[in-house]
Amino acid sequence: MQISPQSEHPWLAGLNEAQSEAVRSLSGPVLVLSGAGTGKTRVLTSRLAELVATGTAKPWNILAVTFTNKAAREMKMRVSAMVGPMAEQVWLGTFHALAARMLRRHAELVGLRSDFTILDMDDQNRVLKQLMEADDIDSKRWPVRLLGGVIQRWKDRGLTPDKVGTAEAGDLANGRLRQLYEAYQARLLALNAVDFGDLLLHMLTVLQNHPDVLAEYHDRITHIMVDEYQDTNVAQYLWLRLLTGSERNLCCVGDDDQSIYGWRGAEVGNILKFESDFPGARIVRLEENYRSTGHILAAASGIIARNETRLGKTLYTGAGDGEKLRVNGYWDGADEARAVSAEIEGMQAAGDDLSQIAVLVRAGFQTREFEERFIAIGLPYRVVGTRFYERAEIRDAIAYMRLITQPADDLAFERIINVPKRGLGTASIQAIHVQARASDKPLLAAAIDLVGSDELRPAARNALGSFCQDIRRWREMSGSLPHTELARMVLDESGYTAMWQANRSPEAEGRLENLTELVNAMQDFDSLQGFLEHISLVMDGDAESEQGEVMLMTLHSAKGLEFDTVFLPGWEEGIFPSQRTIDENGAVGLEEERRLAYVGITRARKRISLSFAGSRRIHGQWQSSIPSRFVQELPPETVIEDIAQGLGGGIPFGRAAQAQLAGGGAFGDTPRSGYGPGWRRMAARQMGAQQGKADQDHFLPTGKNEGFVAGDRVFHQKFGMGNVIHVDGDKLEIAFDKAGHKKVVAGFVSKP
Ligand code: ATP
Ligand code: MG
User: Fold this and answer.
1) Residues 6+ apart with CB under 8 A from 294
2) What is the CATH number of the domain that holds 415?
3) Structural domains of the chain, count
């Protein structure tokens, strides 16, 4: 299979025949359509080197759209080894980065200056909100983020305001969304600003309306290469088609099974119609997977085979079967995080490189539990994407807590004084600063002074007055109220939660989940001070580690990457597949989730440890969960059947469990309900072992108040026996025999 090992072009050494064909096909349209780990990205990096080495193209003649930094680095390195600093002249980067670079050269053609600003989401929404107010569009009825989201999707489809059909906008924003979009674009131009979608959209306009510019690019860019082509949206597709000259030297690589950005406008159809778009295209299929061992590949193939809308491919590996996948069930999320961390520690002790270990989760908020555990045991890690405590909503919430405990915390004051909006504009805030400087007091104290004066206009004075009063009241309550209750109350009463509830954008839900997760995290601390101290340590502990770091990220951001060992926690119905995706997109959504599972499994070279927990705190409530349907879809022969000595206290996913999963067992008639009781028994067995009790089935937190009334005698795992003295929904006030009065959630206690 291997050809030209002695080639003078080292990047050709070791390529298989099909790869080599793709690398050496330097002219005309080429599509490499093949499964994960078959060397698509490697083909692209080798092909770039080949283009330059053979003199087919100069570095500045090549445009390469990459997805991972690693691929971009590798390309640059290979080319600079050949041509030195000229390598810098390859048009190399993501779609957005490349479009931005072009747009700076032609900004004036769309009415911008070349030093335009790229706005972030907050800024975008602020602009849109102002326009809505000016146009009397009710932002309660039509949340800014919802409308902003629709506008972004139009941009993804290459639609400028004049191209949006009347039917498209429907009755959104009282039927005025198209006009709003137009006004929004005009406003951004006036601000000399663009949003993310504009980078491509404006470049489309430039290329479509200015044949001279297009001709200049056709002269200059003779070869185009694109990685992860299955995830391009329409605007990106149109941009590529425009830039592709009459020679049609376009080489795209991708995998329809890894299309995971449909929710953000990606069109898997782009890759499927490549052949009809570019008649005579050379289609290369790669079938040998060089990344993973046999069982991993078989597991991934087994799962993805369940999707109906796919081309279907064969994949094989010469690497041997390797280890089977380990599947563990855990008592709860904390238990899962503990076990995963313990396993990683073991690998670290055995000398494994931590940077070759990744923990991949479905949703951003799931990283929190792992981060905490890693910090607690001092395991170096890196979160790809934003760290939990660095997210805007978490910082806002913490700013409230900080100001309550520390009235002199000016940074916290500044952060939240007008979040949510209280009508305190720049003038009021300036006045507070002036007073603070004059009296040498912290901002909050200065604000209190101002409220007692006539410095501010009445509306601002009232708003500021009630804010200061709220802070004082919460501060007083912090003495008596449990800190988690206080946090919930502050987030509610300040209007902060409502602010996110009112906005229907995709991120809003994630932000609310994060806030709930924050309150969950507080439950593990005795006091607010304890928690805040912990947070500041977490925030300070961000220094780059010299040794390797465990990688922690979402499945989406792991695309294109590879690791020796991959942990896939949280494989539970509702989390993965995500309930929201299924609710919103039905079978199509489920197939996209399944592709994510395929992406996750195929990131691993040697080892996969997959897990689910029997219960989790979701939206602040304990919920018992059942294993993901994807667990059941794993071909049984790829999974370790019995790991009785499960690591870190994991529950063996043994023969009994397999039988449960396979047939629904004796406990239920549908496969899904079949997990339930059997699963509970497994969890209970583990609890029994831990606590020396025979049957603790009923200790499984359920998130429901199972009919507790005042006077009930109950048992709590941490606080022991006690009497219920007050019931408020699922919250119980209990006088414990030893632990005193506590407020607990009903799911945590049981009747003995
Ligand atoms: P994905 O679909 O996940 O993006 P991919 O198809 O882009 O995967 P690569 O990342 O290019 O695959 O390659 C997967 C791994 O296999 C890499 O470590 C790569 O170096 C290695 N590899 C690719 N081709 C060969 C080959 N011919 N011989 C040895 N190793 C190879
Ligand atoms: Mg790749």
Assistant:
1) 317, 319, 320, 321, 322
2) 1.10.486.10
3) 5
Q: Is 574 helix (H, G, I), strand (E, B) or coil?
A: strand
Q: Phi/psi of residue 410, each to 5°?
A: -65, -35
Q: In the prediction, which pLDDT does 682 show? A: 43
Among residues 534, 554, 569, which one ends one of the domains?
A: 534
Range of the domain at 342: 326-380+545-687
Amino acid at 240: L
Instruction: Report pLDDT digits (tens) over 72-121.
Output: 777 888 788 877 888 888 998 888 888 888 998 999 999 998 877 766 66
What are the tens digits of pLDDT across the range 244-279? 989 999 999 999 999 998 888 888 889 989 999 999
Label residue 178 left, alpha or beta by phi (over 0 means left) and psi (-120 to 50 means alpha): alpha
Which ligand places an atom closest to the C-alpha of 14? 1
Q: Write down the mean pLDDT value for the chain.
A: 83
Atom of ligand 1 nearest to the CA of 228: 4
Residue 217 is given by DSSP the state: H
Nearest listed ligand to the Cα of residue 16 = 1
* Mutation choice for ligand 1 from 16, 21, 41, CB with most ligand atoms inside 8 A: 41
Cα–Cα dist 292/301, whole Å:
12
515 and 428 fall within a common domain: yes
584-630 confidence digits (pLDDT tens): 889 999 999 999 999 999 999 999 999 999 998 876 778 888 999 99
pTM, entire model:
0.71
Residue identifier of the C-alpha nearest atom 14 of ligand 1: 37
Going by CA atoms, what residue is nearest to atom 23 of ligand 1? 39
Nearest CA to ligand 1 atom 9: 39
Ligand 1 close to Cβ of residue 40 (< 6 A): yes
Are 490 and 523 found together in one domain?
A: yes
Gap from CA of 51 to ligand 2 centroid (Å): 19
Q: Does residue 3 belong to any structural domain of this protein?
A: no
Distance 560 CA to ligand 2 centre (A): 4
> How far is residue 530's CA from residue 58's CA, in Å, rounded to a whole number?
60
Does the pLDDT value for residue 527 go beyond 60?
A: yes
Residues 682 and 605 in one domain: yes
Verify whether ligand 1 is closer than 6 Å to residue 38 (CB atom): yes
Given the residues 176, 594, 603, 605, the one annotated as active site: 603
747 φ/ψ angles, rounded to the nearest 5 degrees: -60, -20
Predicted confidence band at 3 (pLDDT cuts at 50, 70, 90)?
very low
